[in-house]
């Protein structure tokens, strides 16, 4: 174990907080999977779901380990080509994803032969953030021209969002917000950002009008997320109200110290208790202290991301850490806000804690790239330290040689004086 830990490179703080979140996830997932066990197996045995979650986490950490070994600038080179592949996957998901059973099936595709469902928008967001970071790092070298940036940056961004929007408005809004944050940090001109935001609002309104006017023209879930927003802002009863009410009952039942591990009651009534609403189960079982503890871990992870971004030796590295790390924390905050009814139901999971396979793996892939950036910082710092040691050793060697030469010269001088007869007379 000690040897394995020593082989882990990069920011040890990020490694630690990720491991703590993953380890903590075993208990709430094991507890909250009981309703799934009753529905799927009929006996309420959640051990199989725990083993499955442990396997997902184990594969996720293997992904982090493998990816963090890859120099992060390699992802800069492949981001543009990967974006085209992502468009194909998103288009396929939009067309074929509806055949998969489930309420949110249009977001997912099923990987052939292995039967694993995969949410392509998660991969798309990660590739898009790297693509935006790549553009901003290149654009820093010359003044940004809005017309050229529309072609090189914003058209790819809006094409990606166009593929995601019909099935998943919340993910689209999250990605667009993070892209705006990224270009702001990358010092993209504010007046251009204002134009982009205005264009995005107009485009969204136009899309909604088209979807409402021609509901059967293309697959979309416009009515679903419009109803969610409408239910959130009004008192109309709906399915989302049932979920929120059960989540609030769970949170209120937890009080300060919680009911105890595995003693949640609302997990048997709350849909998606092991994924979208797992934070409510955490608070019910571990109380306000447990909920604040989870929040603190995410904030500490955010703090490490900020430090890693500040220390990165290149602009691309800084933007990659921000682009991949901040959305992870923002998604966690959205998930918690939904549980306490600060936001409408969005379907966003709690990173590294909620059950699921592909979502955990994509999160771990992003973490691997972030740790790769911090590993490069450590390598540069170690090279500078080694160079300083070599320089110091060389200087010491030169100093010893100079001292030796001086001693030899002084020795010759004394011997010469001793041989000189006049020197002997003067000494008398």
Automatic annotation (TrEMBL):
GO BP terms, alphabetized: cell division; peptidoglycan biosynthetic process; regulation of cell shape
InterPro entries per UniProt: FtsW/RodA
Broad class of the protein's primary localization: membrane
UniProt EC number: 2.4.99.28
Protein's UniProt keywords contain Cell cycle: yes
Species, as recorded: Flavobacterium petrolei
EC class name: transferase
Transmembrane segments: 14-38, 50-70, 82-101, 113-133, 153-185, 192-214, 277-303, 315-340, 352-374
Protein name: Probable peptidoglycan glycosyltransferase FtsW
GO molecular function, one term: lipid-linked peptidoglycan transporter activity
